[in-house]
Amino acid sequence: MPSGAYAGNAASGEPVKIGLITNEGGQAISQPETREAAEAATAYANANLGGIAGRPIELVVCKTQEEPTAARNCANQMVEQNLPAVVVTSTGLGSIINPIITGAGIPYATALGGSPAEIMSENSFVWTAGSNTSQAMAAYGKEQGWNTAVAYSIDSPAATGSLERMGGPAFRANGMEFELITIPFGSPDATPQVSAGLDKDPQGVLVYGESTVCTSVLKALSTLGSTAQPISPQTCAAPEVVSAVGPAAVEDMKIFSSGDSVSDNPESVLFREIMAEYAPDTSTEGFAVTGYQSMLGFVRAVEGLNGEVTKETVGDALRNAKDVPLP
Fold first, then answer.
1. C-alpha separations of 108 from 13, 46, 207, 214, 238 in Å
2. Reduced to 3 states, what is the DSSP secondary structure of residue 175?
3. E strand or H helix at 230
4. Per-residue pLDDT tens digits for 161-213
5. Mean pLDDT of 221-236
6. What's the CA gap between 283 and 272, in Å, rounded?
7. 248, 305, 250: which is closest to 55 by C-alpha?
8. By the number of CB atoms within 10 A of the CB, which of 45, 111, 264, 280 ranks highest?
């Protein structure tokens, strides 16, 4: 277990309000598990790590619905409340949210950064390669000797934008042809789209989307007898997907994730223990780990903060953080 994991240093005094923006409530994409995991990490930090500067963290939650207008409203709400920091669990709309938050001098913290704004803004802090996992996928494809890769993605700007900006260029830079095919939200049968992609004779197929898209694409790949290597973020490893498609359909699938949620690594064990204690009804096998990483990474990074908690002192603490273990 990480040193001091259960220090029993309970926070006390007046709560510190920290913004939490989640990709939740939308028709196409909704991942409440990221909020639930962030709330679990917060409860753990308040009970064991002294919250922030010894004071308990109180989350101010706003759900973007992965829709531009709602995302902009969430960012503006955080600015209006002049919060000392905003943690984002996961979003494809960072190009909208981040400039509003950081432009007000508020630190923006997340485990996943999928837009140039999130990666390059002065007040933006990103813990992992995040949405750039498509670049790791491209490197893997090159190692495997692929000539062609096809991406089947939920038809959402948040997902397709990342693949168009980073995924496609990464695969092409690694010497592969790349084709992006969109799947409408809620499609029970993606066979026509999957069949069109397989006409390209790909050696690898990327599956991007929430559980419905993962299920429909993986079923179609199995039905059509595809021999291409399926790869995906951890959303397609969710229990409901595996249950729906059967073990054979996912047996050869490679998962690219910013977090290890299944091994005996002490950080992985701690994640499962915290979730079991503070969010027992939330699955740890899907995208929950990103909300946990975003929130606990933030708490660990500002561990040395004492005294007044403001956007300036939080920003200084984050900029000065070194050798912080990644949750």
1. 25, 20, 29, 30, 28
2. coil
3. strand 229-232
4. 778 888 899 999 999 999 999 998 777 889 999 999 999 999 999 998 878 88
5. 91
6. 10
7. 305
8. 111
* Distance of alpha carbon 122 from alpha carbon 85, whole angstroms: 14
Query: For residues 138 and 123, what is the distance between their CA atoms, to the nearest angstrom?
Result: 29
From its phi and psi, is residue 141 left (phi > 0), alpha (psi between -120 and 50) or beta?
alpha
| Cβ–Cβ < 8 Å for 109, 322 | no
Tell me the C-alpha distance between 65 and 128, whole Å: 23
What is the pLDDT of the chain when averaged over all its residues? 90
Q: CA torsion, points 314, 319, 320, 324, in degrees to nearest 10?
A: 90
Is there a contact between 35 and 291 (Cβ–Cβ < 8 Å)?
yes
For residue 193, the SS3 value is helix
* b/e map 278-310, b = 16+ CB within 10 Å: bbeebbbbbbbbbbbbbbbbbbbbbbebeeebb
CA distance 259 to 241: 19
Distance between CA 2 and CA 245 in Å, rounded?
Answer: 37
Gap between the Cα atoms of 222 and 315, Å rounded = 49
Bridge partners for 148 per DSSP: 177
Cα within 13 Å of Cα(115), Cβ side: 20
Phi, psi (deg, nearest 5) at residue 170: -65, -45
Give the distance, in angstroms, between the CA of residue 157 and the centroid of all CA atoms in the same chain. Answer: 16
Joined tokens for residue 176: 């592969």
